[in-house]
Design brief:
- Belongs to the UbiA prenyltransferase family. Protoheme IX farnesyltransferase subfamily.
- It is an enzyme of class 2 (transferase).
- One of its GO terms (molecular function) is protoheme IX farnesyltransferase activity.
- Keywords: Cell membrane, Heme biosynthesis, Membrane, Transferase, Transmembrane, Transmembrane helix.
- The structure is a single chain.
- By secondary structure, the protein is mostly helical.
- It folds into two domains: 13-169, UbiA prenyltransferase (Tetracycline Repressor, domain 2); 171-305.
- 76% of the residues lie in helices and 0% in strands.
- It has helices at 15-21, 24-39, 47-71, 73-78, 94-115, 118-139, 146-150, 152-155, 157-166, 171-194, 196-202, 207-210, 212-234, 242-263, 267-272, 276-304.
- The protein starts with 14 loop residues before the first helix and ends with a helix.
Length: 305
């Protein structure tokens, strides 16, 4: 017999739910690119200080994620891809997400300033502001260029890592920024090609919603062409070399070829095979960025050896 006194209300939030607020998958990319920017910089850092710096950059990235989930709870609840996030699922109150985001923002910036330098800390503060305010609050719901301009927030971490070591900005860090900045639109537009219904229901003006999939395919291919020269250029700087250039050449050929394949697709063809090519291109975009930064690390280690 069922216990009529049993509590059947919303589940109480656990530690994992608060961790989920920080968008750990996105944060892992922030941590990795920031680490690469820091490690390949020409000024060596004490390993413990470097570890602390990357940790505080990660906390700043998590703070951005929490603030994003606080503000976007209404549209997250509508989209299938995000409906199970802690706030729309009712596991974490919006106020808690906001408080956690603000607290981690202040903590990460202050501690990064003490561990590394105040230029890097100010850069981190600007990145959090850019993602939470410029992208999440302003651009995301107002323009199909949301992911183009807002993508800068995800491109700043290697520059912050570089600044932790050097106290400034170099052509190498600018090109790492450009690599992520021009990669971001085709990466997210490839996702939007097969998740367009989610964005339509939520009223988010992604390019697929405002201009259609055909225009989006043209933009993906165009950005793949623009991206390649910046990726290759990085190989001719002080952090590049034959290992990086070899990896980058192969990846950019694949990325451009994949973009051309998308460009030639019709909506009927895509629907007929359940967007198989679009999903494959999205996965390729993930490998593209990860392998570029991995190649930079390997190039640095081989050079040092």
């Amino acid at each position: 017999m069922a216990d009529i006194n049993a509590y059947h209300g919303p589940a109480e939030a656990g530690f994992g739910d608060y961790v989920a607020l920080l968008k750990p998958r996105v944060m892992s990319l922030v941590v990795f690119t920031a680490f690469v920017g820091l490690w390949i910089a020409p000024v060596p850092m004490n390993p413990f200080v470097a570890f602390c710096a990357v940790l505080f950059i990660a906390l700043g990235g998590g703070a951005s994620g929490a603030l994003n989930m606080w503000y976007d709870a209404d549209i997250d609840a509508v989209m299938k891809r995000t409906a199970n996030r802690p706030v729309p699922a009712g596991l974490v109150p919006k106020g808690d997400a906001l408080a956690l985001g603000l607290a981690l923002s202040g903590l990460s910036v202050m501690m990064l300033g003490l561990a590394a330098n105040w230029f890097a800390a100010a850069f981190l503060a600007f990145t959090i502001f850019f993602y939470a305010v410029v992208y999440t609050i302003w651009l995301k719901r107002s323009t199909p260029q949301n992911i183009v301009i807002g993508g800068a927030a995800g491109a700043f971490p290697p520059m912050i890592g570089w600044a932790c070591a050097t106290g400034g900005i170099g052509i190498e860090s600018l090109l790492m920024f450009a690599l992520i900045f021009f990669w971001t639109p085709p990466h997210f537009w490839a996702l939007a090609l097969f998740m367009n219904n989610d964005y339509t229901k939520a009223g988010v003006p992604m390019l697929t919603v405002t201009h259609g999939r055909k225009v989006t395919r043209r933009h993906i291919f165009g950005y793949a062409l623009v991206l390649a020269p910046f990726a290759i250029w990085l190989g001719f700087t002080s952090v590049g070399g034959w290992i990086y250039l070899s990896v980058s050449a192969v990846l950019n050929l694949l990325f451009i070829a994949g973009g051309w394949q998308l460009l030639r697709r019709t909506d009927d063809q895509a629907q007929a095979d359940n967007y198989r090519i679009e999903k494959r291109y999205f996965r390729l975009s993930l490998y593209y960025l990860f392998l570029h930064f991995t190649a930079l690390l390997i190039q640095h280690w081989v050079g040092a050896w």
